[in-house]
């Protein structure tokens, strides 16, 4: 529990230094009081700590503009306390931060983070309905690539997710695929024009901060990213999910093909963000669970279609598929900072293999 | 001359309403005093009016992030006074603004504009040298696609342009291709890391606003966009230029092929900006002028390589190639607002053809 280690260390222009245990909603409010806001946050903003987000997450609300957490410039520095006999506090800057970024705390205690923060924007939540998923996805892609429209979130949801979305289920006609947006004030009028041109129906709009501050309301970002699955699981435990990555080329065609291949089991959920120099999306499809063999088959179908799957149902960093963007030699980094392998044991398979024997042997090899 | 019609009408959050004759440097300073800045401006900011920029320009400094002036959301509304017997003031909003956007005043007097304005950023000018043009272009493309780095300008310059660039010529070793950047404060450290990783040499950096305010300095944006050619022409009138557009696919390969095809005549100058959903660039190559037959040959080579040319050496809107993004039926729009064809006569070929006869006949047809 890092929540005791909280608060803003300093704010200098467009950079903030924060303690790792700071709650993200509190942090965003503290920044807003100074005219700034978080560049990126997870759907779990109300409960997440900034350190937990960086160590365990890959992106979130804001990624449609700023890319993933690991994109250069989204994490400027971290302070890490090592798990050595005599702990050291190490400042990692720039590319060196990849040692802890998304490494689930295996490489040390992250105590402080330095992040870019944006001028506060008075965002507007919008929910737009389309007759089918393909039209919703096409509109979302179009909107995500509109460079003149400032945005924070572009999500697409299968019509079958709507019943689980309390703030929207009475406002959106049944059977419609949904696009969820957060747009800057100057973008609202042109976004409405684009919705009309593309034959969408704006079913709901609300100031994001007002929805966030009002106990009777829910900001729409709490229906997106990892919260989508959570909204379903709250009502029905027979579902699970996957995390997928669509290459920019033919992303929409691949989305349609996958949805068609598993019409009864795969409830499409897309989060748009730039990848590989183009606009693409990550999928967090909600899956009607049968058994693990069937889940393997669904994952194999993704693989065959050229869609990467970061399986959230495995324990180690490497098997989850998150290793790619990390330090190229994460186990060696862990040896430097946690020679005895005491942090999050079993989480890093490549380290366990390296160590071979219990902690003592590893420690002897290091010294 | 519209410069008497100047000043800010209002500023509400991220939207400003301005009079068309407002000088852009004065406007940007007025906005900065209120914590805002222009989303986009031309290299002629010191002398340009905002109305002139919108009526005659297609993009500029800021386009690497926000795209062209015609991208939805970059111009929210305009007020146009018609050239009818009884002039009307017409408010055009959203997509309707395309009637005047880049139409060179042929469709009416633009008197006011409504534009998104950004939170003011304390930009940093950077000039980075590379051994050759290909490396400079590759770095510029890489930097332009870095979603985590907030930027306002990414330009590439052939080494032979350097002697014409007074602020840089004594700081950059001869023979090096140049990348010119404007970066936000939080992006400076990660940009330096990227420059080092890509073996570039940071030869110059300076706060943009300080360079702009100091009579002894020049902000680097005054070496870019249309000013690049101007810097050359000030010293040598035997040059001319072209305006070209590279499709995102294989943009860098096309740049290299063109440069190789005309090694002695074509001095590459690229401005990076998003196009067709991907990152690409516009070229404003400086051309050593021989005769118009040779210039036609150079343009034909661009055409053969799939690179669009908006020829700045012709008079009419249509022949210049700027018509594509305009109203699909610009001549009909002109009939509505300027039935007698009194504004900028001869500039719109499609209208002249429609009119056929002198002004009287056209007026008769309209009434």
UniProtKB/TrEMBL annotation, chains A, B:
<dbReference type="GO" id="GO:0071949">
    <property type="term" value="F:FAD binding"/>
</dbReference>
<dbReference type="GO" id="GO:0008720">
    <property type="term" value="F:D-lactate dehydrogenase (NAD+) activity"/>
</dbReference>
<dbReference type="InterPro" id="IPR006094">
    <property type="entry name" value="Oxid_FAD_bind_N"/>
</dbReference>
<protein>
    <submittedName>
        <fullName>FAD-binding oxidoreductase</fullName>
    </submittedName>
</protein>
<dbReference type="GO" id="GO:0004458">
    <property type="term" value="F:D-lactate dehydrogenase (cytochrome) activity"/>
</dbReference>
<dbReference type="InterPro" id="IPR016166">
    <property type="entry name" value="FAD-bd_PCMH"/>
</dbReference>
<keyword id="KW-0274">FAD</keyword>
<dbReference type="InterPro" id="IPR036318">
    <property type="entry name" value="FAD-bd_PCMH-like_sf"/>
</dbReference>
<dbReference type="GO" id="GO:1903457">
    <property type="term" value="P:lactate catabolic process"/>
</dbReference>
<keyword id="KW-0285">Flavoprotein</keyword>
<dbReference type="InterPro" id="IPR016164">
    <property type="entry name" value="FAD-linked_Oxase-like_C"/>
</dbReference>
<feature type="domain" description="FAD-binding PCMH-type">
    <location>
        <begin position="1"/>
        <end position="120"/>
    </location>
</feature>
<dbReference type="Pfam" id="PF01565">
    <property type="entry name" value="FAD_binding_4"/>
</dbReference>
<dbReference type="InterPro" id="IPR016169">
    <property type="entry name" value="FAD-bd_PCMH_sub2"/>
</dbReference>
